[in-house]
Amino acid sequence: MDKKGIVRDFEQFKDKVMGIMLFGSGAGDSQHERSDVDICIVAGDYDADKLFGELIRTRLPQKYDVKIFELLPIKLKGGVIDCHKVLWARSKPELSYYLYKWRRMWDDQKLELKKLGIQMFHAG
User: Fold this and answer.
1) Considering the entire predicted model, what is its pTM?
2) Of the candidates 23, 40, 61, 102, which lies 20 to 30 Å from 9 by C-alpha distance?
3) Confidence label for 124 from pLDDT (cuts 50, 70 and 90)
């Protein structure tokens, strides 16, 4: 997978968003030749719904499985937070802090679910 090529493909969004991340099998050790390329765009202060509309008008969703972080349910946000690689960030410290706030919410959610006897993900 050509990470620089992915960043080039999303060039038009770099002045609007906080970060572009790889997640799923591409961010871990389980990628194989038939794996899709999962991309998560962190909108930050940019309107996530507007970003979604702009994204749909491109050919990128045909090439990549693209998600917008702010539009994901907490369980999927947690999955992205737990296993991702930053491909591009306007400011890595700013992106890290933004994700840290969501990580705390995700950790709190997992703890509450564990108290109820609900396991979200199997230990791998």
Assistant:
1) 0.82
2) 102
3) very low
